[in-house]
């Protein structure tokens, strides 16, 4: 990738991969795995990638992605269990139909924000 677009591409890839992976797997192991990827990318001086934007991309991706499916985060499972105890049955399919599109919308907004903040305004330290 051209050096001018390297940071934008890294933000995009880390954000979307962590979000989609956290939607289908538990977000904590995904985050633990992706932290190693981010540290590895930043430590390669030839890439010249700053740490802050990539950490924010991982943070937003895994947090919001975990909300995308019923099993993406432990809190979703607990909430569904409490709802069922009170007579509200939340199925995986019903949850997915409502929440997954919202999660995708949030990821699109965060993508735009991170590009705006770290590519256009360079709000990260060098």
UniProtKB/TrEMBL annotation:
Q: Which GO terms describe its biological process?
A: transmembrane transport
Its recorded name reads P protein
How this chain sits in the membrane, per its record, is:
Multi-pass membrane protein
Q: Which residues form the Citrate transporter-like domain?
A: 7-61
Gene name per UniProt: P
Q: Where in the cell is it found?
A: Membrane
Residues crossing the lipid bilayer are 7-34, 54-74, 95-121
State the source organism's domain of life. Eukaryota
What InterPro entries does this protein map onto? Cit_transptr-like_dom, Diverse_Ion_Transporter
**One GO cellular component term noted in the UniProt record for this chain:** membrane
Could you say which residues form the signal peptide?
A: 1-23
Q: Does the keyword Acyltransferase apply?
A: no
Give the Pfam families listed for this entry: CitMHS (PF03600)
Q: Which UniProt keywords apply?
A: Membrane, Signal, Transmembrane, Transmembrane helix, Transport
